């Protein structure tokens, strides 16, 4: 039976990692993989995470199962971090296996509620969005998002396309730090998106995987909070992988805002059911680390300070790269790098130019020219800038 399986297309980003490892050149630069790296190339365990783990190790007396929805302390603390004020009478939530698990289950929930659902998704988007929907057999339509000329959001096109989503359809939005482009909506544009969804009755699913990596914890959630305050039904898939640096602990939260308390209870039940079907009880360690940090003033302050350092490192590298490119290219056409937010920017290079950067300069980025700013440091920024200009990008 198993020999009937068809080979799966290898993940392009994972292939790139392998290719990078096999490259023996000195000075090669990895801008492919989607994890934060400090200027020494290390993905650190954050200080508050270490301390929380120590406290958990000292105090935990049992590792019996948690509850199906995950611990309430975690769900409440993370929902508050995302939403600011949590409207308890209309908020359902379950702990999930990472942000990916929350997205997957949000889509399953949408299909349970509306078997005819179509999902509207940005073009481009995180490739796993598309791959999960294809695997689920879920119909989806891409909406225009990125303007290859300005490297900003093509907002008129986006509005025209998401307006086609009907009542009971889902519109998948990146809450902040759009992956892969780095181009984001302004608060005014979020207002307009809300007005479109208000009119059509389509439901937003907000993928919030980088809260704190763009302009700050609250600033990065402002679009999500606006949507949550204005629309009757909202799905949010939050991930703690990046902002707590606990990638491998698989810590996520699916939040659903519902029309009323009755719908909240139904939704809570359906989401716990989905946990049960998919993996039963959710992972607890990462969730406990997060709730330990968020509910202790000292740990929370230290975590926020370290997150701020990460954010400022990214912003500093963006500014440095944009300014190097300004002087080397004698133009402002790369200023978008300083305007983008989060870990990624789409450079707008052709596949051939991406190939040239790899072959000539040992600079690895994803084929669509997404570069991970965190793969740089102050010394490698000028190297990249020179290679970009030499490749004629
Ligand atoms: N959404 C986006 C846009 C992402 O980039 C990622 C991580 N690469 C995720 C969701 C999922 O994160 P995780 O499952 O690791 O929590």
Automatic annotation (TrEMBL):
**SUPFAM superfamilies reported in the protein's UniProt record:** PLP-dependent transferases (SSF53383)
The protein's required cofactor(s) are namely: pyridoxal 5'-phosphate
Q: Which UniProt keywords apply?
A: Aminotransferase, Pyridoxal phosphate, Transferase
Which domain of life does the UniProt lineage start with? Bacteria
Q: How does it assemble?
A: Homodimer.
Give the similarity note.
Belongs to the class-I pyridoxal-phosphate-dependent aminotransferase family.
What is this protein called in UniProt? Aspartate/tyrosine/aromatic aminotransferase
Source organism of this protein record: Paracoccus fistulariae
């Amino acid at each position: 039976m198993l020999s009937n399986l068809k080979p799966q297309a290898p993940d392009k980003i994972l292939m790139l990692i392998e290719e990078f490892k096999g490259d023996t050149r000195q000075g090669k630069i990895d801008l492919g993989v989607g994890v934060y790296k400090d200027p020494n190339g290390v993905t650190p365990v954050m200080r508050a995470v270490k301390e929380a783990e120590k406290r958990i190790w000292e105090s935990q007396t049992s590792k019996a199962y948690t509850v199906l929805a995950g611990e309430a302390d975690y769900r409440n603390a993370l929902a508050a971090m995302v939403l600011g004020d949590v409207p308890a009478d209309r908020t359902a939530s379950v702990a999930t296996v990472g942000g990916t698990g929350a997205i997957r289950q949000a889509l399953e929930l949408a299909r349970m509620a509306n078997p005819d659902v179509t999902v509207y998704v940005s073009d481009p988007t995180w490739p796993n969005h598309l791959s999960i929907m294809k695997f689920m057999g879920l119909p989806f339509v891409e909406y225009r998002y990125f303007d290859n000329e300005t490297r900003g959001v093509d907002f008129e096109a986006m509005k025209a396309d998401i307006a086609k989503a009907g009542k009971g359809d889902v519109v998948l939005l990146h809450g902040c730090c759009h992956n892969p482009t780095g181009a984001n909506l302004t608060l005014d544009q979020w207002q307009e998106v809300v007005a479109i969804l208000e009119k059509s009755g389509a439901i937003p699913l907000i993928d919030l995987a980088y809260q704190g990596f763009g302009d700050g914890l609250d600033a990065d959630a402002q679009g999500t909070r606006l949507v949550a305050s204005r629309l009757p039904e909202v799905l949010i898939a939050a991930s703690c992988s990046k902002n707590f640096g606990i990638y491998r602990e698989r810590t996520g939260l699916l939040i659903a805002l519902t029309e009323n308390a009755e719908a909240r209870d139904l939704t809570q039940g359906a989401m716990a059911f989905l946990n049960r079907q998919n993996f039963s009880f959710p992972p607890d360690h990462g969730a406990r680390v997060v709730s330990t940090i968020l509910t202790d003033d000292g740990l929370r302050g230290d975590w926020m300070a370290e997150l701020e350092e990460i954010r400022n490192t990214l912003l500093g590298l963006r500014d440095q790269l944009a300014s190097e490119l300004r002087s080397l290219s004698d133009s402002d056409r790369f200023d978008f790098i300083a305007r983008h937010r989060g870990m990624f920017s789409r450079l707008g290079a052709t596949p051939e130019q991406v190939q040239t950067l790899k072959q000539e300069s040992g600079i690895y980025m994803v084929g669509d020219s997404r570069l991970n700013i965190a793969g740089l440091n102050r010394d490698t920024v000028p190297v990249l800038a020179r290679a970009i200009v030499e490749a004629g990008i």
